Amino acid sequence: ADPDPLQDFCVADLNATISVNGFPCKPASKVNANDFFFDGLTKEGNTSYTTNNLGSSVTAANVLSFPGLNTLGAAMNRVDFAPGGLNPPHSHPRATESGVVIQGKLLVGFVTTQNVYYSKVLGVGEMFVIPKGLVHFQKNVGTGKALAFTAFNSHLPGVVLSTSLFASQPSIPNDVLTQTFQVDDAVVNAIKSKFGS
Ligand code: GLV
Ligand code: MN
């Protein structure tokens, strides 16, 4: 989890010019009820396959979108899925993730540091946990749309996508990737072209 808070709250001043581990606090005199409530997860995300080829959409409530979370070690996401939609393999370097299915049927899986794969298909109301830092995904295996809410013990869990080695700017040299994945340049170039590196 993130460090413990030293005060009741520290609503983030996202525009402060100083840099600290987290964000500095807005003066308490400028804090009001709206700092502690967030309606950004009420709307369904755009899960159209033409948007991202994946048929899924993550809407984040973390310190950047909901500054009241600053220093409190908590954040949530809303994850929407079209039929067949995939929230692709990724990890959160700073948080354990728990989640609950609100609509539909999700295959939830993660891989341990020993390369053991754990997975289960979950229905409405069922919950999962992804241990901190492990690679995981969710796929809609039902017939209609699916919806899940996830929760994190960090105000900014971070996301490392499993495709990030092919998406970096500047690009990682091809010889590093061909040697790593034991494939030729054409394969690396094809994957890079899909992820923008
Ligand atoms: C799901 O894995 C999420 O990060 O919200
Ligand atoms: Mn996740």
Structure description:
There is one protein chain. The protein is 12% helix and 29% strand. It is α+β, with helices and mostly antiparallel strands. It folds into two domains: 1-156, Jelly Rolls (Sandwich); 163-197, no CATH class. The strands form two sheets. It has a five-stranded antiparallel sheet, with no helix packed on it. The chain has a five-stranded antiparallel sheet with strand order 6-5-8-3-10, with no helix packed on it. A hairpin with a 5-residue loop joins strand 5 and strand 6. Helix 2 packs across helix 3. The chain is globular, with a radius of gyration of 19 Å. Glyoxylic acid (GLV) is lined by residues 58, 77, 79, 87, 97, 136, 138, 150.
Number of domains: 2
**Structural class given helices, strands, pairing?**
alpha+beta
Strand element count? 10
CATH class of the largest domain: Mainly Beta
Largest sheet, described in full?
Answer: 5 strands, antiparallel
How far is the first residue's CA from the last residue's CA? Answer: 32 Å
